[in-house]
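Example 3.2
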Amino acid sequence: MKTAFIVLTYNRPDTLLQVLRGLVSQCGEQHEVIIADDGSSQAAIDAVQKALPLFKCPVTHVWHPDRGFTASRARNLAAGSSTANYFVFMDGDCVPNPRFVEAHSALLEPGFFVNGSRVLLSEQLTKKILADEVDINNARWMDWLRWRLAGDANKLIHLLHWPNAPFRKQRAFHWKRIRSCNFGVWRNDFLRVNGFDESFEGWGHEDADLVLRLHNAGLQRKNGFCATEVYHLWHKENSRDNELSNRHIVTQRLHTGVIRAVRGVDDALVADDVRVTRFD
């Protein structure tokens, strides 16, 4: 059993390194870390490689040229390069909690995918974390309470670690709280639906589309609250110019029973503009 943590990034070595530092103490030889790079500059790549923490597992960097927001393609390319049985997709600005790897391992189950949870952090707290003034994974409950009262964190439910909580499983498709920044899926299930659909243009709802197609393929959703939380570092929002049109695509597909992506991981596997590098 091997799990790959696939971390999406684009020109943010500072936030990516925070994520990798959160993973390094949790990952063992049975894991792999894959950086899904959506076209970062060479300077950004060099900064990550220079400051990369020492992992016990392989760390691979999968890069393709910058053609705008093409997160689905970056993730598909990373998944296609992996030999793992199970994928956990993450974003390069979402720092895992100290039990993140353990929690995802406990929740994985045949016939299910895991929809993770997140805690939103303020711009002020994010700046302190990136300046190494705050170690978010060594914060005490008193720190979290102070941050919550100050508006630096949007919730405190992650302080309750409850891996066996009831009501995690959902049979039907729901738009609510779908998170590709924290998402676990079996390799075979991901390949069966042809991964993320690269025909979506720009930001918005490619994650909902993946969840819908997994449901159509017979998979059920398991929610990762009180277990799998990541700490989402503040950033300016991406352009949402295509959000409505992308949502319309998913809405139309609700009634079609579609399972496979129009252009997905199978197509990404034959790409000739991809650079795969082992980071040591």
